[in-house]
Specification:
The chain is mostly helical. The protein has one domain. It contains 5 helices and no strands. α1 runs antiparallel to α2. The longest helix has 17 residues. The chain is elongated and about 45 Å long. The model has no long low-confidence stretch (mean pLDDT 95). It holds the Pfam family Retrotran_gag_2.
Amino acid sequence: YQKDSPATRMNLRQQFYSLAHDPTSGVMSFVNAISAVVRQLESIGHKPAVDEITDKLLIGLHPSFSAVRTTLSLRSPEPSVKDIVSALKQFEASEILS
């Protein structure tokens, strides 16, 4: 449990916005890191909006994921976090197999 203070909130938001996908660690490592910071922000009453989370998932991807990022960002209606994570896992698996 963390106390809600401006310093805590800003530190967590900085962590959230600075996360970047490292393809050598796998996409789920990136997704889990985002989820962990989102849970911490939620615990102090400052959970990011769904579109902030989906934007972060797509913006933070390594350039090697640009094809799936473009596809997901052009989808209408906007995909959910679950849909994005599923597509990223599927894309990563197909890249490993090829």
